[in-house]
Amino acid sequence: MISIKGVIAFVGSILIYGQACLAAEGVASMRSVHSYTATVERVETAAREKGFQVFGRLDHAAAAASVGQTMPPSTVLVIGNPRIGTERFIRYPTLAIDLPLKILVWQDATGTVSVTYNTASHMLSVAQRHGLQSSDQAKEQAVRTEALMATIAETATR
User: How does residue 24 score in pLDDT terms, banded at 50, 70 and 90?
Assistant: First the structure.
């Protein structure tokens, strides 16, 4: 069983040692030491190893190219676990507009590759907008999910 204190210590250590940086409110990012393509593959592998199914890839750069525009590489990986998500979608149907989870792999104009994911606070606000109560259990689940996302990102970026 994962304790909240352990998860908070883990996420805190990542922040302290500079592996994660807040790019915007509600998201966390980690810089990758790998190429963009390798990082995308590593995120998929790490997600599967943590029990997630990869439902799809949304390639924003390819979409931009299809309309004659260019942008640095940017792919959203859509991941989830139907054993966990299905019950929530049945109980809160509108939650499906915000889930499954997503992880963004992107490259900036300087060539730096990063992995970005939603934080627990964002996940809680999303859940609340669909009618889920902000209980201790919901908070623990959001913290555990963020820790999993951080582990996936760290595994992929190292």
Answer: confident
The per-residue pLDDT for 18 is 40
Query: Which residues have CB under 8 Å from 34's CB, separation 6+?
Result: 42, 113, 156, 157
Residue whose entry in the numeric block shows the structure tokens 């209980």: 135
- pLDDT tens digits for 80-96? 999 989 998 999 999 99
Domain boundaries, the chain: 20-157
8 A C-beta contact, residue 100 and residue 79: yes
- Candidates 58, 34, 56; CA nearest to 47 is 56
The fold of the 20-157 domain, in CATH, is TATA-Binding Protein (3.30.310)
Angle at 66 between CA 63 and CA 70, to 5 degrees: 75
Distance of CA 144 to the CA centre of its chain: 12
